[in-house]
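Entry 14. Structure prediction run on the chain below.
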Amino acid sequence: MANRNGEIMADHRIYIAGPDLFLMDWPQRAARVQALCANYGLTAILPVPATTLTGPGVTEPSDAAVAAAVFQSCLDAVRKADGVIANLAPFRGDEPDSGTVTECALAYAWGKPVIGYANSPVMPVSQGADGRMLTEDGGWVEQFGLTHNLMLHGVCQEIVTGLEDAVAIMATVLQKSMRKIPKKRDIGFSWNEIIQRE
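Output returned:
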């Protein structure tokens, strides 16, 4: 498969994490991310179908067993993906969706690239007497010049301001990772030696 630059790419599967599925325009958002991924030679894996959600847990009460099944489905999708693109905009408060952050952390732990994006305004802060940057609730915010908590920046290879930038970066990251894996016939030493050199 070729990306928008005409370069041949493997069919990389990208899990699309974020709270978008909770929004009423989810079908349109899903269609957009699927089209953007396809433009870059990627296949978007959605957490749920690209339809208006209804049924147990959405438009009617449900139980822990259904919640566990949804959790397992998302877990399996992240595990099968080659990378994760995550919407890290604030959701139900000042921080990113907690489920999205969990999926990012799992992907990172499994050695998969994670690219975040958020086009939301920065949380309002004020400077305290001792130099701390304080939020409205009195908590302080670390001062490292980052858009999100340092742990989330550690998990993500990059956090950018838009979805298309995130997709483009993911395509580049996966393209580079393919080039870095040498074929066994091209080298005169063992894989153990490669590991020891790194």
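DSSP finds six helices and eight strands in the chain.
Filed with the rest of this week's runs.
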